[in-house]
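Q: A small favour: would you put together sequence and structure tokens for a protein?
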Amino acid sequence: MDPDPLAGQLPEEDLAGPGFQQRYVRRLRLLWAGRRLLVRCAVAGFLAGTLLAFLLPKQYQSTTELMPPDNGSGSSLLMAALSARTSNGLGAVAGDLLGLKNSGQLFVGELRSTTLQDRLVSRFQLKQVYHDRLEVDARNDLADRSAIGEDRKSGIITIAVTDRSPQRAAAIAQAYVEELNRLVAELSTSAAHRERVFLQERLQAVRQDLEQAERDFSQFASRNTAIDIKEQGKAMVEAAASLQGQLIAAQSERKGLEQIYTPGNVRVRAVQARIAELNHQLEKLGGKVASQNPPSDSPASQDALYPSIRELPVLGVPYADLYRRVKIQEAVFEALTQEYELAKVEEAKETPTVKVLDAAEVPEKKSFPPRLQIMALGTVLALAGGGLWLFGHGWWQAVEAGDERKLLAREITHSLNSAMPWAPPNGSRLQAKAHQAWLRCRGRGVTGASRE
């Protein structure tokens, strides 16, 4: 770099000229005189910008867009009407002034919520990806890499995620939509949701009552062999009537045989045995008078295959009670099940659904860094720095040697220079040690250059 590009070229009176044109021309001459310096600065800035542009890591951005959610409330209809009548967004402003918030703004708030971000941090293990030790740092890094906004006119919600991996950027953008849909379903506070939750809890309680009633009924029926009291009574009465008819016929037959044969005759004894068996069957069906209310755990009751006719009226009352309990619980359970299914349908209708307009795709081009812009910016900044150096150097040369400002600047420079390692020791121990280290480094450099 030239120490004085204008030395011997511009007189001092030109540098100190008062006119605007003279100052303008003087600056142009100054730049022209230092053109070599400007060229070197431009080349150095270009190279530094190029190095920086290629050293910065690549980043990719994946974007997904969501349709505005369906709104059915009166306030939402009012906002829609205002937005339809005004094309410059006054409807949205009027809605904000009236305190009317749509579901799109709620979606944006839920997308930026800590709950949703924590789920994404845990799902993609972003603490390891971003090299963060704390969860809050990973959450902040995710928020910095995510741009979430809503268009006031169309209501379309845009989610843009930036990451070094294009696949992870697309996956996180898609996960935003999935977690939002899940969070909306969990936080739904509509009337249908509250009804569905109530019916679900009630349905569980009724199911337990129904199961208990069925167990009690089945245990009673198994213990007393009471499958169906009504049908059993009808069948047993019919069976008793049939046996009674057979008994009367057998008794008539025995009287006829006794008139012909003696009591010891084989045919008479056979008829008498049949009559005894029929009497036994009738007693078994009808039950004995002495055991009209036998205990359920008595041996007689346990040995009997079915309850007797005398026991059926006694068993009918608890049987009917248990049977009625089972039927009531079944009816309640069936009614609640129907109501529960209808409430689920209504909840699905009232819950805002996330509709994807443009799904997140794996980006093919990087979004950062803009290499051409960085290279151009480095060149421009280097040129500007060179120009400022030329203007400052020219102004410094125009200042008189006896000026107090120049004398003060030289004094400060001399003091700082005397404390540098290359200066001889000035009595300071720190500066002396620095000077020794400087000499050693310089000696090694000279020795290495001489060997080469």
User: Anything to note?
Assistant: The two ends are 27 Å apart (CA to CA). The chain is about 70% helix and 5% strand. The longest helix spans residues 312-350. The chain has four domains: 1-56+369-398, 61-67+101-188+351-358, 202-337, 402-447.
